[in-house]
Amino acid sequence: MWMVVRHKDVCDVLNDPRFSKIRTHPGFPELNSGGKAAAAHRATYVDMDAPEHTRQRGMVEPLFDRKNIDSLRPSFQKTVDECLEKMIKGGCQEPVDLVEKFALPVPTQIIYRLMGIPKKDMDFLTSKNAVRTSASGTARDKSAASNDLNEYVSNLVDSKVKEPKDDLISKLVEQMNKGNLDHEDVVQLTFLHLVAGNATMVNLIALGVVELLQHPQQLEDMKKEPKLVEPMVEELLRYHTSSALATRRVADQDVELLGQVVKKNEGIYASNMSANRDESVFKDPDTFDIHRSPGPQLGFGYGEHVCVARWLARAELQCVFGTIFQKLPDLKLAVRFDKVKYSEPDQDVGITELPVTW
Quick check: is 348 catalytic? Predict the structure, then answer.
């Protein structure tokens, strides 16, 4: 497998239609057996090339555009406030796991509500998704959880056919009724949006808390100047490229690249993680600096496959970091920084457990 690491080269590869995103294409660089199993399911737009990618993505993109997401910010803020108040009410006589009590519930509840998941089902889905994404779970348990989720989603789609509402799943059902999708398409698209970005958001919330606590002066600056929340979020997305394994492609023809030839059916990894630390683009790239002039960070990828939910992610993170240290100014870790439990090296960067007090 080939790899490109410089910012410009990563952008060039991700913008080159000769490199395919289709995971069933011969030579596509899957990283593990789980990826190969996932590739066997019905493809959604994230694993398609144009024009199929453009057509299917266009059905959901308006729901995630900046204007629509901005209109939903009050509901996001309400979710953040409610989750935080519930955590605070529980007290911290003993250290509290911020991942379990805050970082996980916030993005989970937000995407469930956008999709139209009944409130009574949220705990069930959260527990199944936790098993499916667990770093310590067995392959058998993960497979069973995925099957349970698929069955649930299929039944939920059927209920939306009978009683459509103003939510993402109902919008997909509308496309099915027009003949643009079939039932299995709707199920897989629902599953995608249910689970795809959730772990990433959980990780970013926990990572952001740790970084700010490790940089107390920057944290104080942000408390005094709330407008710094936006550049802080952009810096977090650059510094911790938490979705760094999705920028893989395969050549569908011989491609000359940087004086080399990537042959047809050879895989290539365009490392957005490395690109986000390119010293020719970012000054002192290995330093976390919320005062940095905004640059072209690639945390959401690049090109036609740039993350469809990027404005949602930004809005959520801005609500979180504009609130948590205002309501909990004395928030601190209950363990040393070098004892924080990070994810395994072969997984997207994240934190599995974060004990805190306040």
Answer: yes
Q: Which of 79, 108, 200, 352 is catalytic?
A: 200
- 97 counts as catalytic: no
Catalytic residue among 16, 133, 348, 357: 348
Q: What angle do CA 268, 23, 297 make, to 5 degrees?
A: 50
Annotation marks residue 200 as catalytic:
yes
Nearest Cα neighbor of 175 from 67, 60, 254 is 60
* Residue pLDDT, tens place only, 217-255: 999 999 999 999 999 999 999 999 977 778 999 999 999
Give catalytic status of residue 323 as yes or no.
Answer: no
Q: 320 is written with which tokens?
A: 């979180």
C-alpha span between 24 and 28 (Å, rounded): 7
273, two tokens = 């993680």
Sorted by sequence, the CB contacts under 8 Å of residue 104 that are 6+ apart come out as 126, 130, 202
Q: Is 12 helix (H, G, I), strand (E, B) or coil?
A: helix
- Find residue 248's DSSP bridge partners: 269
3-state secondary structure of 318: helix
Contact 314, 320 (CB under 8 A): no
Active-site position among 79, 190, 242, 243 = 243
Q: Among the options 44, 307, 323, 352, which is catalytic?
A: 307
pLDDT digits (tens, 9 = 90+) for 37-95: 676 778 999 999 999 999 999 999 999 999 999 999 999 999 999 999 999 999 999 99
